[in-house]
Fold this protein.
Amino acid sequence: MGQQTVLILDPDAGASGVLSTALSRKGAQCRTESDPAAALSLIGEGGVDLLISELVLPGVSSPQFLREAQAKDPDLAIIAVASAVDVNLAIEVMNSGVYNLLLKPFSLHDFTFNVEKALERRILLRENRLYQTDLERRIEEATSELKRANAELQATKDYLESLLDTSLDTIITSDMDYSVTYANRGAGEMLGHYWNGLVGRNLRDVIVGGPEELQRVSDQLDKGPIRNMEVTLRTADGRHLYVMASISRLLDGDGNVVSTLSICKDITQQKRLEHELKELTIRDPLTGLFNQRHFYQRLTAEIERCRRQNHALSLLLFDVDHFKTYNDTHGHLEGDNVLRTIGDVVREHTRDYVDVPCRYGGDEFVVILAEAGQAQARQIAERIRSAFEARHFGDCTLSAGVMTYRGDATAEEFIRIADQMMYEAKRSGGNRVFVREATAGSAKNKGNGDTARNSAFATRFSRTGTTSGGR
């Protein structure tokens, strides 16, 4: 770590002391602070290479604080630490430029490793920024040289192309009509075009979003050069690449805009890792279905959309009959296999990107059936029930309850009624689907004449599926 300076911000003096001691042994110069305002002042004075900040700061929004810290020093490396953190806050913090978010407790070995990598990244970013600034300066100087003489024009052009082709980043210049006038070898390799094949193409064909996205970029350029804007580019074979773009307008000697320079770094892998991180926070690792937290978030959103757009919405809730007995008899590994199989069956019989299948907990599962009325929901539930039954896991079958949303019921009422139907199916012998539907008055079970009432809904329920027992 050399003589690099690390600022540790933590209201807990004991915690910051432990971290300071660990880094000092590695040769770092450490300072500790408990006050965010004082920390910002130190950063503004310069000389701080790395900020290690507790994510939970009393009276302060941590994302806002981190943005202010980076505004004072754009090259500042930042590591956030926290005992526990909300998923959305974690994503917001990571998107704000933090190198990493460490969850307590962590080992000092992992901590110092992350510190070393963050400091290395700071050095690379500074070198890259200086390189980019120097590169833009050279291009501007070379562009003005083009006016002097045709002989110097060719020599300068050859020099610049040789220089730019050493960069793995995409470097493109375009005229005022967005036609590409120059593209380095890195641009061709990144976007999958043959050597110099981008020249003459219009950026509307390269940037995802076409004219609308180009207009957004142009509006930003009217305010000044763009630094680190996320843009999506389209490759020759139709794939999408996420890039971090720095864009500026090049002027002639009279101050007129003659072209636009774009330097783009591929961040597709970083975006993929961010997506995978988010998936880990919303997926159940055993079944691959969404988890309970994601279920509650999506259910609230779907109810609001149902009310606003006046379309159907149904909820399917089911659990495994005799699962505990099967688990105790065959072992937990076989029990896990049952749950994984249910995940496979649910995915096979629900709609990708429309329905929301979730593991509610234990051997209970729930599916949000967007834009599905009672009849369609019943069909989906019955297909899942019969498909699982055909897998033959001993006496294990599924008991399911279906509720189609009506009126202005809350999410809790919606879940409770579907849950009530599931237990009606279970009490009736299992391996069946019970459906509750809103009516003008009280009604009965179509199968056996039993009545069912609810304080919020006058309902009737029907059933499908068979069991060996029944009632």
Observations:
- The chain has a mean pLDDT of 84.
- The first strand starts at residue 5 and ends at 9.
- The chain has three domains: 5-125, 127-268, 283-464.
